[in-house]
Amino acid sequence: MRIIIIIINTHIQYIVYYIQIYIIIHNMILHIFYFIISTFISSMFFINFSIKFIISFIYSFILSLSFCFIFLYYLICFFFKSFDIIIRIFINIYSFVITVS
Fold first, then answer.
1. Domain of 34?
2. How many C-beta atoms lie closer than 10 Å to residue 47's C-beta?
3. Which listed residue, of 26, 75, 79, 87, carries a Cα 20 to 30 Å from 98's Cα?
4. What's the domain count of the chain?
């Protein structure tokens, strides 16, 4: 019975892990689209082309920096969450080995 519980628990952790991967990828795609659309919209509001280019470049640069920080945040969260799941799996296996022996 304990083996079945450990297997189910491990599979649930993997399902949660893959759902989090999907959420991270989905958020990254949304941020990319937000970056493209906001750059386009910011360049539309200026009449002179040189001013338009400079302002849109600065705005795009600021957005890309925020995009990089958001990506870094997701990457760190993803790493620590995967590390946490691996530790939990090893703890489950270790507790099973201790219980059986």
1. 2-100
2. 6
3. 79
4. 1
